[in-house]
Write a structure and sequence with these properties.
Shape: rod-shaped
Strand order of the largest sheet: 21-22-23-24-25-26-27-28
CATH architecture of the largest domain: Beta Barrel
Oligomer: single chain
CATH topology of the largest domain: Porin
Order of helices and strands: EEEEEEEEEEEEEEEEEEEEEEEEEEEE
Strand content: over 45%
Distance between the termini: 119 Å
CATH class of the largest domain: Mainly Beta
Length: 388
């Protein structure tokens, strides 16, 4: 007992009340450091007595916070149980939609957080519990749910398969057949590689119909692949690669015309020819076969309309080209006769978009044979050629 005597506080242990009648008292309880202290105070005086001491272990209160509540496959999910009370330890268990346990973790007040990654889409239940000093589990609700977003499925198609002669002709590469089981497609990434595996072009389609109008400017075998992304940011597996064989058109029609000077009296003619243009080796060697008439610009009976034929092999060096071969020229005036020519050309491509070519050229024709003297039967012309 604690009591005051002559101005001083004194302590008496094991004090027993010896009065004949019970003494009225006040009782109260103090709790500190997991202990209950039962205190008795007699009503007539202010003395205080410690009646008994009991262990005071409160029940644990579980608190579970999980973030985010929606995530993609293998995103980090943070579990936080730092808000639990009176806990010696905590436990959390993760189960899938079928009730199967996929992960669990024991935590402590000193280390109350945990990160887990989930490999499959679907809804998961997180259930926690806190254990007090006696190992008694908490009874309050302590759970959360997390949804793992399913990734989209990538599917590509190309509108021209099999692609025939599409150099410089657009083809449509589309991911519009791609699907997402729990959302929508947000964008499609396309990638094109050449035969060596080098990336030659990429494109991102950020809206429906998620397609790419692609123009190839060079023949070859290409592979088209890529992936799609859904509206929650999940990325599909790479789309199955599609092989595209791009071929170049080799055979074209041509038309050419221009002024010509015919030696003798250097008479002016106007010629026109039509024929074929064939790419032997694209951008390197070609063959032209053309035929057509030449009309004199001088109104006289001395000069005659005559017919020409050219068969030339051309060497291309960028936009410039050089042609050589044989030709035929008809009779332009008496007493000349028609016959074979040696023909040479030098020219320049004004445009070349693989579907058509526009060129200017200078041409010289030298007659062959003893009856067609070199000095008296030369022809020079300046022309424009359109290949289509």
């Amino acid at each position: 007992m604690l009591f005051r005597s002559r101005g001083q506080v004194k302590i008496v242990k094991d004090l027993e009340w010896a009065g004949e009648a019970p003494i009225p008292v006040f009782t109260f309880k103090l709790t500190k450091n997991y202990k209950h202290y039962h205190i008795v105070m007699p009503r007539p005086c202010g003395n205080i007595s410690l009646l008994k001491i009991e262990d005071a272990i409160p029940d644990a209160v579980c608190n579970l916070a999980v973030s985010p509540n929606k995530a993609n496959i293998n995103d980090a999910i943070t579990v936080d149980m730092s808000g639990s009370q009176h806990a010696k330890s905590m436990e959390v268990t993760v189960t899938d939609a079928g009730g199967n346990v996929v992960a669990s973790k024991s935590l402590t007040p000193d280390s109350p957080r945990w990160q887990v990654k989930l490999e499959n889409p679907g809804e998961y239940a997180f259930k926690g519990k806190a254990l007090n000093m006696e190992g008694k589990a908490s009874t309050n609700p302590c759970d959360a749910k997390v949804y793992i977003n399913a990734p989209p499925v990538c599917r590509y198609f190309i509108d021209c398969l099999p692609c025939l002669h599409p150099v410089n002709e657009p083809i449509i590469i589309s991911a519009s057949d791609s699907t997402d089981p729990d959302g929508q497609i947000a964008k499609a990434n396309f990638e094109i590689r050449d035969e060596s595996g080098a990336v030659v072009d990429t494109f991102v389609a950020s809206g429906a119909p998620f397609s790419w109008e692609k123009t190839f400017d060079k023949a070859g075998i290409y592979s088209v692949s890529g992936f799609v992304t859904d509206d929650f940011g999940a990325v599909s597996e790479p789309c199955q690669s599609i092989e595209v064989k791009i071929t170049e058109k080799k055979l074209f029609f041509l038309a050419e015309a221009g002024p010509m000077l015919v030696r003798g009296t250097w008479t002016t003619y106007l010629f026109g020819r039509i024929g074929l243009f064939y790419k032997i080796v694209p951008d390197r060697f070609s063959f032209t076969l053309a035929a057509g008439p030449a009309f004199p610009m001088t109104n006289t009976e001395e000069f005659k309309t005559f017919f020409m034929v050219n068969a030339l092999v051309n060497l291309h060096a960028g936009p410039a080209f050089f042609g050589a071969g044989l030709g035929y020229s008809g009779k332009s005036q008496d007493p000349r006769s028609g016959g074979l020519d040696i023909v040479g050309q030098i020219g320049y491509d004004l445009f070349n978009n693989y579907k058509s070519i526009g060129s200017i050229f200078f041409e010289g024709r030298i007659p062959m044979g003893s009856k067609r003297p070199f000095k008296t039967d030369q022809k020079f012309s300046l022309g424009f050629r359109y290949v289509f």
